[in-house]
Design a protein that fits this description.
This protein is of the alpha+beta class. It has helices spanning 44-67, 107-119, 121-126; strands spanning 9-11, 17-20, 26-28, 75-84, 90-99, 131-136. The strands form two sheets. It has a three-stranded antiparallel sheet, with no helix packed on it.
Amino acid sequence: MDALYTAVATANGREGRAVSSDGQVDLPLSLPTALGGNGEGTNPEQLFAAGYAACFASAMSSVARTAKIDVKDVSVTAEVGIGKDTDGGFGLAVVMRVELPEHLEGEPGRQLVEQTHAYCPYSKATRGNIDVEIVIE
């Protein structure tokens, strides 16, 4: 793959900071309260959820543009869960909630979401690695 853009960020753990090379991201990190932290910063799961939701919505716009479908009222929410996996380590799971407007209800919307899931770079990266459930609302 010839990269068109490369994002660079540095972090020093869940109780530190995450900073991008261009300074656009400079965030305190902390464990969420559900994992025993103070919850005063963001965490990798929130950052992954934001990135995946944004990428999926952008991918849908690209797929829809080719098919001449209006998706301006589509909303995408990613829920990223972390938990113990079968080998004693930690794993992730994603629920991707896609809220479609009336004109995309039923089969047209389902097809668009499936095409988007096949096209989205985050979906490609997670496929076969973590569970991703797509929910159309």
